[in-house]
Structures are given as C-alpha cells and as structure tokens.
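Kindly inspect this chain:
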Amino acid sequence: MNAIDTVLYTGKTHTVGGREGHTRSDDGQLDVDLSPPGSRRPGTNPEQLFAAGWSACFEGAMGIAARKLRVALPAETAIDAEVDLGKVGEEYQLQARLAISLPGIAPEQAQAIIDEAHRTCPYSKLSRGNIDVQIRLV
C-alpha cells in the first residue's frame, strides 16, 4: 500500500452513540441522526452513507475515464448503489452492488468507462479484495 503524497481533502466527523447516535462534520454540512438498519427510527445508517459516498465518487471517476476516452457522460448518468450488512458465521461483513446507467453510450464504450472508473475510484480501491462487489451496466 502506497502512502499518499499529497492530501487533497480531509473529511472530518464527530460521532457519538454509534448506530443509534448522531454524526456531524466539522463544517456542519453533514449533520444526521443515526439509527440501526430496519429500525424505522429517524436517521440514516453507515451502509446508506457508504452507498451514497461510493456512488458519488464512482460517478466522478467515470467522468475522468470518459474524458480520457473523449466521451461526454450523459446528464442522465445514474448509479443505484446497494450495500448489504450481513454475517459470515459470527462475523459482520459488507457486500455491495453498483447498477450503472449510461444512456446513449454504446455498451462496449460504457463498459470501458466503468472498468476504468472501478480501477481508479478510491472507494473501489478501498473495497477491492475486502468485500464482494458486483458492478453492472443497466
């Protein structure tokens, strides 16, 4: 693993109460209650936050990949992300799926964009080899 040469940004949050608590970023842009998945209590959970972060980052990586291929991403580009929390035996585990829509782009070219984005996206690098990931073009 290579150390970062230049830090571009540091996201900072303060969380109290774990899955039943509250988290707030140092700049106040993120300020949410947390609740366990399926509890029906107000708030989000780490799996939703991971899905949102990864899909946003992945779309950014697709934009970079598309520019390299001299293709414009359509305005309707969309990613549906799902992150499962489960167990393997007694250990908790995540798995994730990204369903990517690139309307108007030929399937071969769309797949090349997706493959390059998955290679370069920091969230993809974080998950690679650590959790089961499925990425598909829809």
